[in-house]
Design brief:
Helix content is 43%, strand content 12%. The chain has a five-stranded mixed sheet. It has 361 residues and is of the alpha/beta class.
C-alpha cells in the first residue's frame, strides 16, 4: 500500500478478530470499595451517558489502568481516594487522572485545529488515545501512522460524542431539522439506561446497564480505529501520491488520476488544503472495477455538497454512446449523467480527453 506502514497493514488482520473477541468478553468489575490489587476508576452513578461509558472503556484499555475496577459514586470523599475520576468531581488534571468537564471555566479542546469542547471521552482520548492506537497495532507511539489515526479517529468518532454531551449543534442554524435522527452512538447508549417504568431501579441493575454501555461504546471505538487503519489510511496514502503527481497527467494540475480504486472523496478536500493545492482539483479519473470502462468524476464544492466545482459541459449531459461521442468529438464515450457530475469512456485516453475538454468549456 502506497505510503502505508507495512507493519500496520500486516498485523491488522491478526488483531481484528482477536480484538472483537476481547471486547465482547471483557469483564467490567464494579466495586463499592478500593481493591489493593488493582487500580480503581470512578465515575458518577445514576443516569449515564455515552461520554463516560467510552471514557471508562478507554482508560481501562491503557497499561496504567488495565482492567481497573469501576466505582460509580458522586460522594467526594469516595472519589478523592480513587486512582482516576471521570465525568464527575469538578476537576480536570491529567497529571492526577482527573477528567471532568462540568466545572465553571472549563474550555479544554483537543487541539490540532479542533475547537469542540471536550467531554470526559475526549479528555481521556486526548491523554491516552495515541497510546491505545500504538499498542493495538504494535507500533511506536511516535510513528506517523499512529499520529494520523489519532487525529482521524478523533474527527470521525470521538468529536461527535464530545459535541453531543456538551450540547453543541452540528450546524450553525436555528431552523428545525428536516427529520429526526435518533441513531447516533450517544443516543443508543442513552437508551441503555433503566427505563422509568421499570419496577427495579437498583444500583446493581444500573451498574449492569453501564457495563453494557461500556461494551457497546468500546466495541464501536475499536471498530473505528480498525476501519481507519485498514481502509482510511491506505486510501489516504494513494490519494496523496496521486495528488502529488497530478501535473504529470495534465499541466493544469486540475485533473487527478486514481492509480487504484479507493474512497478518495474522504481525503481529497483535506489533502488539498494540507498540500496547499491551487488551483483545486476539478476532475478525478479512475477505472470502474466492474465494467473496466473509465470514469471521469467532477469534484464537489465541499464534502457535504452535491454541487460540482466544474460539472461536465451542459451539451453532453444525458447523452450516451455514439450520440455523446459525436457531441464531444471524442471516440468511445459511454455516458454523461444528467447533472454533469460523472461521465464515462471506454478508454483512459478518452476519459482524459473528456476532462481536458471540460476544463476549457
Amino acid at each position: 500500500m502506497l505510503g502505508f506502514s507495512k507493519n500496520l497493514s500486516q498485523i491488522f488482520y491478526k488483531h481484528l478478530v482477536c480484538n472483537k473477541r476481547c471486547v465482547s468478553s471483557s469483564v467490567f468489575s464494579f466495586s463499592t470499595s478500593a481493591n489493593l490489587a488493582k487500580r480503581v476508576v470512578g465515575t458518577h452513578n445514576g443516569k449515564f451517558h455515552c461520554d463516560e461509558a467510552l471514557a471508562c472503556f478507554l482508560i481501562r484499555s491503557t497499561d496504567k489502568f488495565s482492567n481497573a475496577h469501576i466505582i460509580r459514586s458522586r460522594d467526594p470523599q469516595v472519589l478523592e481516594t480513587l486512582d482516576a475520576v471521570l465525568d464527575v468531581g469538578g476537576v480536570y488534571d491529567p497529571s492526577r487522572d482527573r477528567y471532568d468537564h462540568h466545572q465553571k471555566g472549563f474550555h479544554e479542546v483537543f487541539g490540532h485545529g479542533f475547537t469542540t469542547k471536550l467531554s470526559s471521552a475526549g479528555l481521556v482520548y486526548k491523554q491516552y488515545g495515541a497510546e491505545l492506537i500504538a499498542k493495538e497495532f504494535q507500533l511506536n507511539e511516535g510513528h506517523q501512522d499512529v499520529h494520523e489515526l489519532f487525529l482521524a479517529v478523533y474527527k470521525n468518532f470521538v468529536e461527535a460524542i464530545d459535541a453531543a454531551d456538551n450540547g453543541i449543534n452540528q450546524y450553525d442554524t436555528y431552523q428545525p431539522p428536516r427529520y429526526v435522527n435518533n441513531t447516533s452512538l450517544s443516543q443508543r447508549v442513552g437508551r441503555l439506561n433503566l427505563d422509568w417504568v421499570d419496577p427495579s431501579q437498583s444500583s446493581e441493575r444500573e451498574d449492569e446497564a453501564f457495563q453494557l454501555a461500556m461494551k457497546v461504546a468500546g466495541t464501536e471505538f475499536m471498530e473505528s480505529i480498525h476501519f481507519h487503519a485498514k481502509s482510511w489510511l491506505p486510501a489516504r496514502s494513494i490519494v496523496r501520491e496521486c495528488l502529488a503527481s497530478r501535473e504529470d497527467i495534465d499541466s493544469s494540475g486540475e485533473i487527478m488520476v486514481l492509480t487504484k480504486s479507493c474512497p478518495w472523496k474522504l481525503h481529497i478536500f483535506e489533502l488539498e488544503e494540507k498540500m496547499k493545492i491551487n488551483p483545486s482539483i476539478k476532475y478525478v479519473i479512475y477505472q470502474d472495477d466492474r465494467s473496466e470502462n473509465w470514469r471521469i468524476q467532477a469534484v464537489a464544492v465541499s464534502p457535504d455538497k452535491f454541487e460540482s466545482r466544474k460539472p461536465l459541459p451542459l451539451p453532453w449531459r444525458g447523452l450516451v454512446d455514439d450520440e455523446l461521442s459525436e457531441a464531444t468529438g471524442i471516440p468511445c464515450c459511454v455516458f454523461v449523467h444528467m447533472s454533469g457530475f460523472i461521465g464515462g469512456n471506454q478508454s483512459y485516453e478518452g476519459a482524459l480527453d473528456m476532462a481536458r475538454t471540460s476544463l476549457k468549456a
